Amino acid sequence: MACVALSVGLQGCATDPPSRMLPPLGDIGSVPGPLDTPFPQRQEGAVASVGSEIVIRAISLLGAPYRFGGSGPTTFDCSGLVQFIHHELGLDVPRTAADQYRAAAPIRLDDIAPGDLLFFRISGKRISHVAIYAGSGRFVHAPQTGRPIELRTLDDEYYKPRLAGAGRLF
User: Fold this and answer.
1) Could you report the average pLDDT of every consecutive run of 10 residues in the chain (170 residues)?
2) Can 87 be counted among the known catalytic residues?
3) pTM for the whole structure
């Protein structure tokens, strides 16, 4: 029984989708549109909002390796990334994407703000993936084995039809 509980606890994202499911990762620096828009810089002496601080920390982890069940500080799966960043800010967050979805205060997609979470149904009807909304139509997430933490847009052809909702844990 303890092994089953440990296994469930380490799962993080509900699935580790095969790499053939996602479109190839191109040169992020050359993608036109919102991905090229610079992120605002933290002003010296300014106090960041919780949402902005979540985004700053997520962006600082771009390129970190994905590992199924990883929850930091050097490797992450999708929900482990969310949990790690929130924990750094003193916020207690559930471990799995599905539990994070249940715990989050729902936010209308028209009202999402930086630091909010985006929840996806990658296959089937259950929530199996989570990302951090970064603003300007972009999100940071840990996609799958073999792919580092990356930046994507809300109109991404793979993720857009799988977006199930948004929520806030702060």
Assistant:
1) 39 47 39 49 66 97 97 97 98 98 97 98 96 98 96 97 97
2) no
3) 0.78
